[in-house]
Design goal:
Layout: E1 4-12, H1 13-25, E2 30-35, E3 54-62, H2 67-78, E4 84-89, H3 94-99, E5 105-107, E6 111-114, E7 126-129, H4 142-152, E8 160-164, H5 170-177, E9 182-186, H6 190-202, E10 209-212, E11 221-227, H7 230-235, H8 237-242, E12 244-256, H9 260-267, E13 271-279, E14 282-289
Parallel strand pairs: 6-7, 8-9, 8-11, 9-10, 11-12
Antiparallel strand pairs: 1-3, 1-4, 2-3, 5-6, 12-14, 13-14
Helix pairs in contact: 1-2, 4-5
């Protein structure tokens, strides 16, 4: 006999939360969302949740539930034209199975992002221990990868770095592992700041990571990296420029390739743009403070 029952249906995004609440009220132990049609979604703003146009909502139930009554309740909510499927699921260590999907990733010549389920024996590597979590940034997204490669390319020994929009803290922690003496990290999302602190503690660099929600708390540093979105980057140009010393280096990401001219125009008044890189349609812009 199976241990669990999965009940799954595809609904428009605006209906997903209502379906999720209904599944929970009917006794679901967990509810998950998945993309139904491989629709791309750009990185959400901190604290923002975006759903796909068509979203698969799955409820996980104990095997002794009354499937018929659950389906009847869902039909009453979404109508009888929405297919609702159920399937048996064997018990297993789901957290371990999920974590096993994530492998160590190398960026540049030195940097390695490694989940806690692995051990890196190569002592020449600068290893950041990081498990995927709620805050954005585990290295798997091209915008994060581009920023990590930028940091790996620099000599950060004893330098101070600003991580603007820190998310999981991956960029600031990577900078510290690569030799930076201090990182000033900012995010408007409490969840991101909490995740950054937890990840910094896991890597033994929390005493060198200063976290804040207020840009006034940041000092001007020789390196600044910002992996957010084009709109906020353009709006924050004056603030971001003020946090980079003359001759300091800047890396901007969270951008798509088509936003290259917009970003360069916004930042050229304070920076000499010396490089751009593209990965899978995502853009990194690098500059030097005038």
């Amino acid at each position: 006999m199976s241990d669990y029952i999965e009940i799954k249906l595809i609904v428009p995004s605006q209906k997903a939360d209502e379906v999720s609440d209904t599944l929970s009220a009917l006794g679901a132990m967990a509810v998950t969302y998945q993309d139904a049609k491989d629709s791309p979604i750009l990185e959400p703003l901190p604290g923002e949740v975006r759903l796909w146009p068509q979203t698969v909502v799955t409820g996980l139930f104990d095997n002794n539930v009354d499937i018929t009554s659950i389906k009847d309740a869902l039909i009453a909510l979404v109508g009888d034209n929405t297919p609702i499927s159920d399937s048996s699921l064997e018990d297993k260590d789901w957290i371990r199975a999920w974590m096993d999907q994530f492998k160590p990733m190398n960026f540049g010549k030195r940097l390695c992002i490694c989940p806690s389920t692995y051990t890196i024996e190569d002592k020449s590597k600068a290893v950041v221990m990081l498990d995927p979590g709620l805050a954005f940034g585990t290295g798997t997204h091209p915008t994060t990868a581009l920023c990590l490669e930028f940091l790996d390319s620099l000599d950060l020994k004893d330098k101070e770095v600003v991580d603007y929009g820190c998310g999981s803290g991956i960029l600031g922690i990577a900078a510290l592992i690569l030799g930076a003496k201090q990182v000033y990290a900012i995010d408007i999302d409490d969840q991101a700041l909490s995740a950054s602190l937890d990840n910094a503690k896991r890597n033994g660099v929390d005493t060198k990571l200063f976290l804040t929600k207020n840009s006034a708390d940041l000092k001007a540093c020789p390196v600044l990296v910002a992996n957010i979105l084009a709109g906020p980057l353009c709006e924050l140009e004056n603030v971001i420029a003020s946090k980079v010393v003359s001759g300091g280096k800047l890396a901007l990401s969270g951008l798509i390739e088509e936003q290259r001219d917009e970003i360069i125009q916004a930042y050229s008044k304070d920076f000499d743009i010396y490089d751009t890189k593209v990965q899978d349609g995502w853009l990194l812009v690098c500059g030097i403070k005038k």
